[in-house]
Design brief:
The protein is about 75% helix and about 0% strand. The chain is mainly alpha-helical and about 140 residues long. The chain has one domain (about 10-140): Four Helix Bundle (Hemerythrin (Met), subunit A). It is elongated.
Length: about 140
């Protein structure tokens, strides 16, 4: 088997981080549901029931959902760069930077969640992602 493109390492790292956030979400959510004595009702909207949980419990779920939004673009561009044979050097550095900033974003949102700081962290990750997309576009077009 040929060596995989190095840019797949940050892809898998972000997938692993998303799995960690899934575990953290349920490790906090299930005890909070039990403590609140909630009976989950399939007739009520899920968001309505979860809104009854403490904010610091909801933050983990919010972040888990966020890891299924913008990072999908990261996965697409990283896989594109891998297929193009451009998953090294600057692109690899940018990919690892994106993953690192997303992890910082997760930790901030899950532990403190000051929106102004979270937005700044998100903006940095967005700029890194846009740089990766532009670099891929320059190769493809």
């Amino acid at each position: 088997m040929p060596n995989p493109s190095p840019i797949l390492e940050p892809v898998v790292a972000l997938l692993l981080w998303t799995s960690i956030m899934w575990l953290w979400m349920y490790a906090t959510r299930i005890p909070a549901i039990q403590k609140a004595g909630m009976t989950l009702d399939p007739e009520r909207p899920g968001g309505e029931q979860m809104a009854q949980l403490p904010a610091n419990v909801r933050w983990k779920a919010d972040n888990y959902n966020h890891l299924h939004e913008q990072p999908t673009l990261f996965y697409a561009v990283a896989l594109t760069l891998a297929l193009l044979g451009a998953g090294t050097d600057t692109n690899l550095t940018l990919a690892w930077a994106y993953v690192a900033v997303r992890i910082v974003h997760s930790l901030h949102q899950s532990l403190w969640n000051k929106i102004e700081i979270r937005f700044a962290i998100f903006s940095v990750s967005s700029l890194i992602l846009i740089a990766l997309i532009i670099r891929a576009a320059l190769i493809v077009f």
